[in-house]
# Entry
Amino acid sequence: MSATPLAPSLEEEVLPETAAFYRRALTVLADAGVPFLVGGAFAHACYTGIRRSTKDLDLFIRREDYERVAGLMQAEGWRPELTYPHWLAKVYAGSDFIDLIFNSGNGVTPVDGRWFHDNPEADVLGVPVRVANMEDSLLSKAFIMERERYDGADIAHLLQVNAERLDWAAMIDRFGPNWRVLLAHLTLFGFIYPGERHRIPAWVMDQLLTRLAVESRQVPEQDPHICAGTLLSREQYLHDVEQLGYVDGRLTPASTMTPEDVAQWTEAIPARQEPDLPGGVASPKPVAAGAARDIPPQ
# Structure
């Protein structure tokens, strides 16, 4: 395990009844031997020291483990819900809930065996757990560029605290063909912290900039007419795919999403409303239970 300075437990941040729910859920999963990783605000606090109030507990699991996890949670009297089959489920205990995350909202980063590597150990409410590693924490945030939420600041802070400790070769490998997204964040890091640009290894920038130079000189053999913007925002590039005829980047091999997944995820956008009330006031379209609140945008 990595020797990572970790944040204090959540004991002081949640109500006692919420803490009891979280503690029991973590214990049940650990006792059953289900692989899981703690992420979200807790993991971010572990790596940056930035603490912020959390309304839920984020756990990364593999999709193939969901049915088993749901059964364990149901046996405790809680209500599991496969809110978005392509990436997110929830477990409810009254108004409290836990997010079970097995992919990203854009379908690009499924939780697989690579996630369960070099994971620091931490204590959450008295339960020993493993935390999503820094590289996957960064990867899971890199594509979140919605109008109402942009996680670029989280990435800048992860880099500002941990630049020398990241496995950069693994990071580049994890981004794969989406290396331009990584380069964009590293470029912004140099803008945000101009006196710390040197902390990003020179070979990393050289490799990515060489790729950029080579790719920029190459004329595509054919125009695939793809808009990959939908991998960054589920809403802001809908004009491109709905009105301009671009192929949705989520419906290419870059993503695991199906047309049904895309339709459901698009339907859940709060701003997509129907003007059906007197005076032209818009009313929200119906969405799946739990979809309209407390859903991370990716």
Notes: The chain has ten helices and eleven strands. Confidence is low (pLDDT under 50) at residues 276-295. The radius of gyration is 20 Å.
